[in-house]
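Run log // design_07
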């Protein structure tokens, strides 16, 4: 009889890759830099046009979205046998396409994650206030629910 095992990595170290649903919807990645800090990356499709200057050639396919944030995690904020860190951070995002002008904005990230002790997963929910700086200024809120798998 042969046994196959998959190495399990802690979710507060290493690199994780997964998906996020919301605004935007797409790929999500996280790279831990310490036990409490990480870089968060997203690449996907952004459907909303509330902060972008419309150029008159609307395409229903959505816009390409990329963001990168630096995060701080508070593991002691919620008392539980599981790990539910609250996190916050700051970063930037870029949107382009679908008949809108390309735009750049500053993101403020507020979220909560569930890091199950027995699996290399990170399940997260976040709200992200965005201040758009180019293609007109504006303010809006993005949100996402996602899951990432962490590799050993």
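design_07 sequence
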């Amino acid at each position: 009889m042969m046994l196959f095992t998959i190495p399990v990595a802690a979710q507060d170290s290493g690199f994780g890759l997964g998906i996020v649903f919301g605004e935007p919807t797409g790929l999500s990645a996280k790279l831990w830099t310490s036990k409490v800090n990480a870089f968060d990356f997203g690449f996907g499709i952004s459907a909303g046009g509330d902060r972008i200057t419309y150029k008159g050639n609307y395409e229903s396919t959505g816009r390409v979205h990329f963001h990168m944030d630096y995060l701080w995690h508070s593991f002691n904020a919620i008392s539980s046998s599981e790990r539910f860190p609250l996190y916050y951070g700051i970063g930037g995002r870029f949107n382009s396409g679908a008949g809108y002008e390309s735009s750049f904005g500053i993101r403020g990230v507020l979220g909560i994650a569930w890091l199950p002790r027995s699996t290399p997963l990170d399940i997260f929910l976040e709200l992200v206030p965005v201040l758009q700086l180019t293609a007109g200024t504006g303010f809006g809120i993005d949100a996402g629910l996602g899951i990432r798998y962490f590799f050993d």
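Residues 75 and 85 are 4 Å apart (CA to CA).
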